[in-house]
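Bit of a strange request maybe. I'm writing a small parser for structure token strings and I need a real example to test against, not something I typed by hand. Could someone generate the tokens for this chain?
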Amino acid sequence: MTDPKTETAAPQSKAAASPETPQTPPGAAANGTGSAGGKPAGSCPPPQAGGRPRGILTRLYDLLALFPLLPLTLIYAAQTAFTLDARSLWFSDEIRHGNVYETMLATGQWLVPHLNGIPYPDKPPVYFWFLGLLDAIPGVDGPMVFQLGAAVSGLLVLWATYALARLVAGCDKRESFAAGLVLLCGMYFLGVTHYARMDLLFAAVITLAHICMYRGLRLPLAFRWILPAFALAAVATLVKGPFGMAFPLLAGVAYGLWRGMPRRLNRMDVAIGGGIMLATLLAWVGAVWFEGYADLIRNILRHQIVDRATAAWHHEQPWWHYLATFPAAWLPFTLMLPFLPWGRAFTPASMRAVLATRKGQGDGMAYVWLALATSFALLTAVSIKIVIYLLPLFPLLAVVTARALLRLNGFGSRMYFGLTALLLLVLALGLGALSLWQWAPDMARVRFQPQVLALLDIARGAPVLAGITLVFAVLLWKAVDRSRPEGGLLTLAAFVTALIVPAALFTAPSLDPVMSPRAQAELMGEYIRKGYHPVSYKVYSGTYTYYAGSNIEELSDEDSLRAAMAVFPQLVVAMRADRFAEWADKPADLREVHRQWIVDREYVLAERSGPVQPVQPVQPVQPIQPTLPDDAATPDPAVTGDQAPAPDAPALPQPAPGDGNGTAPAAPATQQPVQPAQPGQPPATPEAPAVPLPGPQPRDNAPATPQPMPVPTPPPPPPGVGATDTPGTPAPATAQAQ
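Reply from user aminoacidic:
Good idea to test on real output. This should exercise your parser:
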């Protein structure tokens, strides 16, 4: 590919006389390319073969590299296409995002995400719009929507990585193909493609913004590159957060300073692009503000941005956290570090080559390195740190790794792939030992914690995974020419593909009992449909909502829990098992009905059944309609199909915006009191929600659920009790964390 020509002639002539204008490297053609082959000025030299013979796998690699995107896409499809509906949604992000998306579908509120009936400040809405587009595909429904979202996002990252190698690093097809294979061989990356989060879509959009930013800044004036760069930065911000604009902007500033052209950042295209980015973000903020969610915007600005960057209440880690965790996330390619030619990296010739990038010779790789350095520094500087936040760096790392891998000499390549084969052998032995656990005697089992036993007992498919790993360890050691990195890279890609399919189809679903709250949430949903009031006490927000099919009242202090017990005769409560055991004054009639490990903690579901009155066998009357505030959004009652609530669902109204400042007017308790029965008339029943609550509904083959019995009229609840859908700003994560 060739660089585009400058879009205006006048700025080009003026820029030619300025020392800050990007200079064409020596020997560049008139069309702006830096080589006779038409590759960009930032192109890298082809890898040196070193006179080594080309084996079958190397020739196959060269054949596949003729049309790189086709084999990359087919390999990725083999890794993901058969696993889209294999398991339940897992704690905690999948289950929370599932409820957010289902609430958008049920309420039609696509501007402000809601979790468990209240505004959700953690994430912007664009990712859920993306899921809505995928949901329109025939046959895509339920949890498959979220898994398909992760798979398609990963494919976009793969394509963006190839484009980054071609259009920024200037690599040929062989190295660009290698960059894609490096991404597909990473176990962490493949794991994320099977876990529903917005981080992959976030990384894909940021990578495209990097491409446009580099292609635009190396020209005197380039509206067709700079404007999309800023627009993509705005989209990335609305996918996940402010890092979406921070990563490409920091890389662009660093690149401009490195090239010695700071005035390039003051040109008209940059100014207009920045205006487009700010206008896009302010348009969403303003729309949310005028919808009556002013407190949500304040929460986002204060807690989600400032506090997370300076003093995070959740996932706070020391500055060296990524230095310690990144090597594991980038396996198996971190094993290559000892075999790189470090001695040549600091020679005078290497230093001259680095300095030559300031004049435009190979400046594409300079941009890649600057983007890596600035992004890593930013992630290290903020207080909140999670390994998955490194995903936007993976395309950059894939390009760097691919170039280094194809340039390994014969000895370095043999040592690296030999060490990788040894790692696979150790993994195979570990999986084989795990497969023997089912025959372990009881005296061995008592030595482990219950959650460890649960993980060991449900890890099905370990013998198959061990066999696959052992076969490829032997192939990599004995049957592959390890002196040629192309053959080893293809073998690793085949191994990961062969391993990920049975792991996703058999092992991952077997982890549902400890990774998904589905079992406990569905049981809670059955009690809700019988008329019980649902409560969770100090449980991570939104844990049960999706599979319960109803919003859950979330309490974070003992006084509120006692008040709820006093108000609702029929109540079902979920809490941690240790807190349930330590609850000294719990009601004597509170009965434990379910116990489940969710990730690393055990949770209890308990129910309390109060006195009931018999139902009069007469014709029902119309339910009482609740009075809504004048400025409240009127729900749409015309909802049918799978989203319709069960007839006996408790009254849990949807949130309505307040008086314009984000504060909702005072409302009565969510559960309408039952009116006393009049002679000749049946007792009034609680009002069903006008808009159904999200989540899966009971299956046709589920056990028959008895109809609810009316309960006596409870006393008015104290303030703060019974408001399962109170709009407003949610408490910080620590208030409801495990």
